[in-house]
Amino acid sequence: MLVTFVHSDLGIGGAELAMINCAKALVSKNMQVEFIVAHYDRNRCFEETKKFKITTVCNWFPRHIFGKFHALLAFFHIMLISIFIALFRTTSNHLFYRFFPIISETKKVDVVIIDQVSSAIPILRLFNYKTIFYCHYPDMLLCKLHTDYGFAIYRRLINMWERRSTNLADFIIVNSKYTLEIAQKFLLDIDKHAVILHPVPCTSNYDEYKADVCEKRLGISQDDVIITSVNRFEKKKNIVLALAAFYKLISNKLIKKNIHLVIAGGYDERLSENIEYYKELTDMAHRLDIYENVVFLKNINENMKRFLYKRSRCILYTPQYEHFGIVPIEAMAIGCPVIAHNSGGPMETIVHDETGFLCDNDPHQFSQYMYDIITNDSLYSKFSKNSINLVQEKFSFSIFTDNLFKICDYVVNN
Question: Range of 140's domain?
C-alpha cells in the first residue's frame, strides 16, 4: 500500500512532526509512504524527513504578494499539487484510467493524507483518489480579523471553500478533543464525523554521546538550574509570559542556585513575524535586566530538544488555547514536568498537580509553580514518574500506529 502525504511547508513545527510520525507509523506496518509538498528546506526541517521520498511541486510559487494573500496563494499552491498527483500518480479507479493507458504505468496511490489546507480534496476526489484530511485546527479561525469590507468578502469565499472541501474527504482526523469541538461548531457538516488521533512524541533514540556537544552549545554550567520554553518564535505562542514569569522568579532571590531560562524554537528568516518577535523577546530580556540569564536558541535539532527536556527542571508551555501542543507530551515522555496555560490541548495531556501544573495567564502563578518544582525534590520526582507513566498509557507510538493503520485500511477497503 502506498500512502501519499500532501503538506504545504515541511519545516519545523507540531503539524510537521505529526505528519512525520504518521509516516513512520505506516512504514512500521510495511506500507510505502511519500511526501509531496509545496516547500522543503533541508537546512530547516526535522532530521527524520531526510529518510522519506519528498517531492517539491512548484517551489517557485509565491507565498504572498506584498505581504498579503497568504491563504489564497496557499490554497492555489495545494491545488497545483493535487493536479500534479492526478497527472503523475494513479489509483485503480482513476477518472482517465481507461482512456489514457500511460496513466496505468505511473505510481499507484492507495490513499492521500492531506493536512492544513483542504483545497486539494475536490480535485483528488474528482479523479477518484481516497482521501484522509488531518485537521490540526480550522484555518478559517487562524486568520487575523480585519475591518476592511473587501477583505471580509475575500476571506468569506476562502472559508466557504474550506468548509466544502474539508467535508468532501473520505475520512477526517482531528488532533484533540478541543479541536474536534471547534471543528464541529465551525467546519464540519452535521452528518460528518471526525475521529481524534492524538499526535505522539518523537520515537527517535536520544544520542547520549552528543550530550557534551549540546551542553557546549548551551554554555551553562551543569550545576545550574534550567527552565525551558520550546515554541516557534510567533506572537501567538505567548513567550513573553515565560520571560515575565522568569523575571518574577529570580527577582525574589529565594533560590540560591543560578537559574537560566532557555527559549528555543523554530525560526524562519522568510517570515517577518519571526524576525520581529525574536527582537521583541530579546529587547524584553534586556529591559528586565535578565538577558544574562536567558539563552535564545533557533531551529534546534531533535537531539538538542531532547537534551533540553532531560536537562531542564521543568518546561514552560505558554500558548493560550493551543490546538493540541506536542511539546508537553514530548517533555513528559522523558520525565520532565510541564507548567502550561489551562486551556486547549494541554488540558487533555497534563494532569494538574500530578504530572505538572495548569494555570492562568499570570506570570506570578507561573513563577510560583516554577519555585515549587525547583525547591521540592519529592514533588519533582512525583511529577517525573507520573509523566512517564501517563505518556506510556495514553500517547504511546504503538497505540497511535495501530489506530492510524486501521483508519487507512478502512478508507482503502470501503
Answer: 2-200+397-413
- Is residue 146 a part of any domain in this protein? yes
pLDDT tens-digit series, residues 12-61: 888 999 999 999 999 999 999 999 999 999 988 888 899 999 999 988 88
- CB 160: neighbour CB atoms within 10 A? 11
Which of 57-66, 194-203, 353-362 has the largest mean confidence?
353-362
- Order of strands across the sheet that contains 32-39: 53-56, 32-39, 2-9, 111-115, 131-135, 171-174, 195-196
Supply angle C-alpha 26, 30, 36, rounded to 5.
50
SS3 262: strand
CB distance 250 to 288 below 8 Å: no
Pairing of strands 314-317, 89-90: unpaired
Number of Cβ within 10 Å of residue 353's Cβ equals 13
Where residue 301 sits, what CATH number does that domain have?
Answer: 3.40.50.2000
Give the integer Cα–Cα distance in Å for 387 and 335. 6
By the 10 Å C-beta count (0-12 exposed, 13-18 middle, 19+ buried), 291 is classed as middle
Q: Do 334 and 294 have their domain in common?
A: yes
Q: What DSSP designation does 272 have? A: H
The C-alpha R_g of the chain, in whole angstroms, comes to 22
